[in-house]
Amino acid sequence: MVELLEPLSAQELSRLSGALLSGNPEAQVSKLGALDELSSGVLSFCSDASMTNRVKAAPGGVVFCDPSLVREQPGLTFLAVSEPKLAFSRVAAKFAIRVLGDGVSEKAVVSPEAKLATSVVVGPFAVIEAGAVIAAGTKIGAFSYVGANVTIGENCEIFPHVTILDSVRVGNRVKMYPGTVVGSSGFGYFPSRTAGGLVELPQIGIVVVEDDVRIGANSAVDRATLGQTTVGRGTKIDNLVQVGHNVQLGRSNILCGCVGIGGSAKFGDGVVLGGGAMIGDNVDIAAGTQLGMSSCSTADILEGKGYTGTPPVPVKEFFRNHLNVRKLGDMFKRLARLEKHLGIKADEGSAT
User: Fold this and answer.
1) pLDDT tens for residues 9-21?
2) Which of 65, 86, 144, 253 has the fewest CB atoms within 10 Å distance of its CB?
């Protein structure tokens, strides 16, 4: 469980969240926990009916829940709100204790030519190069690297062991989790008879990460060959994701774990890629597209709807085809019987 910076009463939580209180307004909350951990002083949430069997009698516990899920439960206090998970997450973001340190560690290496706002936190063994500009409220974790001429906006969280290479631009309220690498060279090689092998095309562009982006652990966003790679505002990237050079991600995209995106692909707003989905080079993906896990697209998707499979087809068509494939064995047997009845000699290799 996670502690709060200061205890809050159920009544205060009701006022802050706009939730309708049912139970003890004086119930004090000092910790955040799962439904299974409910006890006195613990705040949790219940977002759908399937979770109600996990709500146990816990005198003093407080639960954000949908209004339809409020019930008589001795000792429990309910805060009824239309989006309980959202209400809970806002409390967690604003009041939960986080161990982030204070100021610039004596063990950090900060160039005298870097510009850091007075409220910036830098952990031990972090390195910040010349020309870097870091705005107020941003926190740089231990062992992270911020390259030359990087700009980072306000209230960002750069967790330990993150690498942000030269000239990358990062907006406000961005989170980068451990192992993230932003601005490494794109994968650009071409064969040359004159040079006698593969030649690397210099990757001299930049990466722009807009406001409110989240980049998960061990993910990589490559620098552009020329111009810029862009991660659009509000986009959320899971762990182990590869974003190639010159990719243009729209606003509020969701890239689940192990997604791979080839160079110069272009996404509209609100695109969702399931885990392990792959997008080829120079592919355009329409706004609102949802691509199922492990799907692969090497051609443009022009209509924003749900697809799955390789190559991707609309979800309903995919499952209809899948059901038909499962019937093929029986269909071959029926065909063989029909051929035998008609005296047709089956071709070599046909079903028997």
Assistant:
1) 999 999 999 999 9
2) 86
